[in-house]
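Write out this protein's structure.
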Amino acid sequence: LLRSKQLSALRPREPHTAPRPRCTVPMSAAGHLYWSRAPTNPEGSVAPKKISTNTSSPAAAVDADKPWCPIFKWGQRGGTVYLTIFVPCLKGTDDVSIDITDRAVEFRAERVAEFAGGRSAARSYRLQLQLFAEVDASRCVHHLRHDHVRVELAKRRNQPWRSLQAPGVPKNPNERPDFDHVDSDDSDSDSQPTPRPRRATPPDRASGGRGGRGGVVASLLSGCVEAASGALRGLTAAEVALVLLVAAHVLACPFTKVEESFNLQAVHDLLFHRTDIAQYDHHAFPGVVPRTFVGALLLAAASAPAVLALQLAEAPKLYAQVAVRVTLGLASAAATARVHRAVARRFGRQSGLAFLTLSLVQFHPLFYGSRTLPNTFGVLASSLATAAWLEGRHQAALSTLTVGTVIFRFDLLLLLAPLTLLVAARRQLPLATIAATGIGSGAAALLPTLLLDSLLWRRPLWPEGEVLLANTVGNMSANYGTSPAGWYFYSALPRALSLAYPLALASLPLVPRAREYVGVALCFVALYSLLPHKELRFILYAAPLLNAGAAAALAHLFARLPPRNAKTAGRRTAAVLGRAAIAASLAGSLALACCFTAAARLNYPGAHALLALHASSPPRGTRGPRVHVGVEAAISGVSRFLELPPPWQYSKAEGLAPAQLTRFSHLLTGANDDATRDLPGFELAHVERGFTRVAMRPPFLLTEPKINVLRRRKEGAVGRAAAAATEGDYFL
């Protein structure tokens, strides 16, 4: 050792050089991207390669105007591929875009790199990948971090990938393996055992040895179950809970009110009368204004297999009504799940989870999701448009809202207008593209509604155009009651959104990226407040946008809570109290939704009265009961789906004199109808109670007599239910 020191002392020393300047930017996993092209590179370091179409010239490879190819790593676990793209010191103001299709991923980023000595330079990063297999772009999410972007690709087929890119594509020099995401089993598909093919089951054996109608019913039911399971297979656990909750609302309240009667009766006629247009209900009861058959036709087509199976099984038609409403509820749940995934991609996974949580504890969006209202079809259009807008597909959002405006509800124009102005003001689409989208989508939507509705209404008709004239020029909606100008803000929105309403307002200062969505929704509500007639269902189109902003605010607040294992006692207390406050608020919203559901169950006395009549008066002989359904019963749950086959006969004729009612054997009349209360020749057979108001002390839900069931008096018979008409004024 001493000898080596002596020899080194005798060697000539190198001339003194100045120390190399050190980068002042904190280094990260990809920090070398800052200094890899600086003249002070250590010997042996390799500058990252960049995307360039001209590789013949060395100068072209380092041209500052060419985009840089970032270092990235990838791994897989189960049905998810994890892709991490390293771009250091990303900020929320940087221009970052990720386009994910079924077979490709394209990443772009623009940022300003800062060097030692106060120097800065623009950096453009670009990465294009052709994937090994197809992915489900609607289920893919990405997260923006300060030094990397994390992308989670959902495989369509849960099979291991041999490489990230498609066969034949050369491996990118900046590609790295991600050892944190590796399947435990061998990824080589050749080592997997080949499953033995299953023998096809003969048709007669598949139906349990029973041919004919039983086999057809079994095959239809199995087809419906297989289609439903296939639709649910791609959903997460929270989205499945959303679907089950919508179905639970249908089972809890399977009946409908007068606002839903047109679409429900139209679906009934399309399913049961089919081409016999003369038997359709709208010819006898057209309603105040005509409505379109487009939504009813789509709903009837989607629920036809389940209804046909129920018909072959000779099930009551009420089951068909439940099947129709469950089908519509599934469509609403699917649209909500679509918005959830768009929220997760726009604001992050925590915001997506918050969106689903807020949706699960609300009553009105879930309850109205299965109601056959024209507004429900409008909410479907607004949900799909919201998802497209969150994903940056502005043209698709404008086109979807235009179609919903022309076909289902013209008041969607109040939501379409501020969105169009925002897109134009930000120059997210050229004005020519916006105009072409509106004209093209409007013309494409106008054609089917003109053809179908003119055929079924037997006159040239555009339903939403006539509704627009009736409500604006004629001001017919004001005849059904008016409300103060701010009623939507202080009454409707708090009841419809519960906890999400204050969170949506809080997102305006807390989450800058959510301001445009919440702002457009509030602008829509403000414009609708100018109309004197107000109902809660009119503003449900804004619920997806407001829930998205509320989810972003909730995730923002939760992320800023101290950790539960914080070092100081004050921070630990704040962590516990903050989480407890969020949990208590969600529990309160859920309790409020349960109260609304309990009250809604009591709000259909007409349907319950008709079912009680069916149970108490079986037909005798060939001459069956002849039932007259009064106005109060018809608007509180009675529909054609509740009617029994002959020899039962039904009539909803209005304006009949007391002498004309004597040709019926049973009457369903209002409990406060003085004209039929003491009708000669009839006795009181049943009194159906209905919801009236909420009390602040037990019993909380108060009811009162709503519908009277009268039957023709027999010789010497005495009404047995009249004494019970005033008993049980309260219902808990």
